[in-house]
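As a warm-up, study this chain.
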Amino acid sequence: MTQPDDLRVKIFADGADLASMVELAAQPYIKGLTTNPTLMKQAGITDYQLFAKEVLNQITSKPISFEVFADDHDEMLRQGLLIASWAENVYVKVPVTTTDGTSCVPLIRELSSHGVKLNVTALMTVDQVREVLEALAPAVPAIISVFAGRIADTGRDPMPIMREALDVMKARPEVELIWASPRELLNVFQADEVGCHIITATPDVLKKLALIGKDLTQYSVETVQMFHRDATAAGFQL
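Now compare it with the structure written out below.
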């Protein structure tokens, strides 16, 4: 069975716990890192810039995405330029739309024209991929994050959408596609099969890499042992 070292898709760690990020960044199979305001809020972070600077002081050689959190063009532009100035390995995450659904394509075009490396996030459709791709400046590295996991949450198979997105992007080798918001380890293999450049994964998904190729009969026994152990610990009686 395919092992992590055999995968073509690059694995980016997704999270907002500093110690975990530093530990994962030291692993050869982790090729980059991402975070977002929701993960940062869940981690109890209150000072965005201080947290980012602490991360960047310790992780200097792998790409890291930090997201703007404003909701209007001018402030998103200011935040994007500021975030980009923090370190050479920073990608600025910009949403595909504002909260009212207004396209961020003008913002994407302006930041990219300044040479800012972007991670355009929260895409769900191939039409959005086309619009974003047209706005990205040639030769400036960029990432497009299609939320395949959320697409799957709606009952749709994300594989055809990811294949079509990759087809649209063929002429722009400086732009990479992320399979974002995976729900399970299987998604890593799906992303690899379809040819995605990158998949993001939270620590909960990453820890399952150790299960690759595990003997299923043994896994069955271990599952039964877990049920028995937990029932005993709970003191259940009938």
